[in-house]
Amino acid sequence: MTRPAPTSFIFPQILNSPDFLRYLNPKSQPSSISSMDAVNSLDVVDETTSFQVKSFFESAPLLKDADSISGKLTQFIHQNFSLPGPRRVVCVTSGGTTVPLEQRCVRYIDNFSSGHRGATSTEYFLKSGYSVIFLYRRGTCQPYCRSLPDDPLLECFKLTSDSSIQVHESHAEAVKSAISGHHDAVSGGYLLKLPFTTIFEYLQILRLIATSMKILGPNAMFYLAAAVSDFYVPWESMAVHKIQSASGPLDMRLAQVPKMLAVLRKEWAPTAFCVSFKLETDKDILLEKADNALKKYQMHAVVANELSTRKEVVILVTKCGKVSVYRENDQSVVESPLIKLLVEKHSTYIRDTNA
Ligand code: PMT
């Protein structure tokens, strides 16, 4: 019996083109710069990254609601920029991006992230006087909702005998503080929430945010806690309809998502204070990888965390050294001391930049 050939959804002509080979494996191209060169030369985003970034955006499906998102951003930034002060604004990214396998998507690859880090950090930034653009994955944890049960609507509320809705006594405090915290932040114009699902949406919205925040100079901060896919299927080589299982085993080649950190630092938001994250499951490689990210992408800080201990401890890596940041006790969260430290570092950065 002949075995059906594995299904491949990257068109052969694209696969064989030198550009696409370079795209899949940037290290194979002779002109690619070494990591040491990258450390010293982020003044210009290297040719391979520029090429990957250009291809990524050119082939990405058009962002729905791009005009509405741009309008909300302009209004939010303008409002915060015109305040006496001026107010600091941080873009917090949160949750994992999906990578669709079909254009009319039934299946996708996902990155793990509950969104707890991003949502909790947002609360602490707001508490520290920042305005926050919260770029989050739909369905993940939201600011001020940490103390609510998994299904707040069904677990926090009950029907009374006259069919009106009432909060259960046991959840009353949590519901009150969620509603008031969220309402104050949004209606006061301090919190703008923008959702994403796919890697295409995430990177297109991040670019819109970064370019709108340019006007804020060093008062802008990026806190990139989202778990971003490293591999994806380019839109033009993606199956349109649901991939048929009758065609046999699926053999799919994923292209590399360009690391946008370099582009963010150099082109989109060159004067902003940038904090990226490094997540590993192997603690032996974590700090080395965080150090590399700090130097290679010229981040102002990298938050290194290990998957299993991420809620108890993170390590803040800056050019001044490494600091372990612990939560104070079982009732507290590590984001409280972490944001305090980052706010101090951001203040120093603003002072030095303006000096
Ligand atoms: O949400 P929780 O469950 O609370 O968990 C929090 C967290 C573990 C998700 C969070 O603390 C965290 O570590 N987030 C970053 C996870 C991640 O994607 O790490 P990375 O090592 O793969 O990427 C490093 C950095 O590069 C990230 O800041 C990412 O935004 C950025 N990146 C990644 C890929 C890519 N193509 N471009 C990027 O810019």
Automatic annotation (TrEMBL):
GO molecular function terms listed in the Swiss-Prot or TrEMBL record: phosphopantothenate--cysteine ligase activity
Gene Ontology BP terms: coenzyme A biosynthetic process
Domain DNA/pantothenate metabolism flavoprotein C-terminal: 216-313
Pathway assigned to this chain's UniProt record: Cofactor biosynthesis; coenzyme A biosynthesis; CoA from (R)-pantothenate: step 2/5
Domain of life according to the entry: Eukaryota
Key words, A-Z: Coenzyme A biosynthesis
Matches recorded under SUPFAM superfamilies: CoaB-like
Family of the protein in this entry: Belongs to the PPC synthetase family.
Identification of the protein by name: DNA/pantothenate metabolism flavoprotein C-terminal domain-containing protein
Organism: Tagetes erecta
